[in-house]
Hints:
The chain has 11 helices and no strands. It has helices at about 5-10, 15-25, 35-50, 50-65, 70-95, 100, 110, 120-130, 135-145, 150-175, 180-184. Helix 3 (about 35-50) packs across helix 5 (about 70-95) and helix 3 (about 35-50) packs parallel to helix 8. The chain is globular. The termini are close together.
Amino acid sequence: MNxxxxxxxxxxxxxxxxxxxxxxxxxxxxxxLNAAQVWGTALATAIASRNKALIxxxxxxxxxxxxxxxxxxxxxxAAMMGMNNIxxxxxxxxxxxxxxxxxxxxxxTIVGSPGIEKADFELFSLAVSAINGCGMCIDSHEKILIKAxxxxxxxxxxxxxxxVMHAVAVVLETDPDVDVQAAA
Length: 184
């Protein structure tokens, strides 16, 4: 199955998602992100969205657009933020300030040495954090990205990719009339 097959599986009520799905992945339409940033963000956020059919399609297309290091880093960003977003969202939401004073004691070495441009890893991490709803992580990654020279428009583009990946995953997961197996 490819992206067009998957888009065809989306029901009529999700027509806007069909259009947005194609648009956010069209690297020719991105003025602010390069192809590696688009596909790395798409892969990380598809994984964060947890829909097997979407992940398979995006992984397949990402392999054609990313080198091995970017592919691995996008997957690592999804994995790392799956952990960090829970932990730091808890710190942010808890009314007990004592937790924030305690060491996290969570291994996060990939963040310091992701094997790709650090700012690109931060971009993937921010997009996953948007899906996972961690404001503390969003703020932290956004500050690093701004300092690295990313514009608000480039960050917005990454979050647009995340929002579409998540919405497509929700429709695929919840609509009983969608049969991605038949399209495979």
